[in-house]
Amino acid sequence: MFASSNSLNKVHTGQMKFMQERVAGVEKHFGHICSALGAYTRKEAKLRDKGDEVSRALQDYGEEESLNKSLRAALCETADTLAAVQDYRDVKVERLEARVVGEVAMYGGVCRTARDELKRGFDTRQREIAHRRSLEKVKTRHPQNRQQIIIAETKLQKATAEAQRACHNLEDMTDQFEQKKISDLKKILKEFVQNEIAFHAKALELYTRAYNQVSSIEEDEDLEEFRNALKGNAVGRVEAVGAGEGSSLSPVIVTSRRNRLPRKKGELKKSMEKLQVEDYEEIHQSTSSEDD
Question: Quick one: which of 9, 121, 148, 150 has the most CB atoms within 10 Å?
Fold first, then answer.
């Protein structure tokens, strides 16, 4: 009987160790993934801010350029388009923080809870082993003392029942843990990839627009403007450019990027309403429906 119970204890101990290793592995790798995704998100936020600086620099130059008419228009238009890219990047950063990094970070608490459950189950199993040894000791030292043997057997039966319940509970817990881990990681990675697809699809559209805006610069015409001004024959033309700021060029300058409110970490931007980010949502949802 003792040999059989000892063999059973080894099985349970092996199962317990396996469960602990699985939880420890998730805790380790999810921690690494969380750190990597956090660093990635911070880099994206910095790139967003640097992109805003590029946009502001182009806008500042465009607002002050008074001779090169097509260059002025292209600078202002391109600045606004590049700023739009960064607004979409801002939405991307917000999604990464909330739906990717935040979800992975939650697994720190999930793993701690699982580890505590395993410890309680291990303690229950150790109490059963202690009572089993106590019974064997009583049988060896006092084989005729039936009362002590019955007491020891009763304690062992109670400890065994508790250990069996704990073992079943742990099996259910680790099964649910594994299922949740697989499901959540799949969801998180899909969210990450879909977020990238949606952003880059929209960014490609905007960068194509920016390329066309830059291509619209009329080098010969702008150079002619400069040469005329250099010769002192372009006073009237300069005044005409200034007067035209309220008509043909004014739609280009929607808002000065200097007046743009600085972003604060963790603050949800209203880029979706301002720049029709519902397009971004449509791209994101379309990739989700394709996967489903």
Answer: 121
- The C-alpha angle with vertex 124 and arms to 119 and 127, in degrees rounded to 5, equals 125
**What is the Cα–Cα distance from 207 to 210, expressed in whole angstroms?**
5
Q: What is the 3-class SS of 131-170, one letter each residue?
A: HHHHHHHHHHHCCCCHHHHHHHHHHHHHHHHHHHHHHHHH
- Report the range of poorest mean pLDDT among 87-96, 108-117, 244-253: 244-253
Q: Can you give the C-alpha Rg of the chain in angstroms?
A: 34
Tokens coding 243? 């007067």
Neighbours of 190 (CB within 10 A): 13
CB under 8 A, 24+ apart: contacts of 231-234: 234/67
Q: Which of 133, 132, 127, 117 is nearest to 168 (CA)?
A: 117
**The pLDDT of residue 265 is above 90:** no
In this prediction the pTM is 0.73
- Greater confidence, 124 or 217? 217
Among 67-81, 174-188, 234-248, where is mean pLDDT lowest? 234-248
Contact criterion met (CB below 8 Å) for 181 and 28? no
Instruction: Average the pLDDT over 20-40 and give the result.
Output: 95
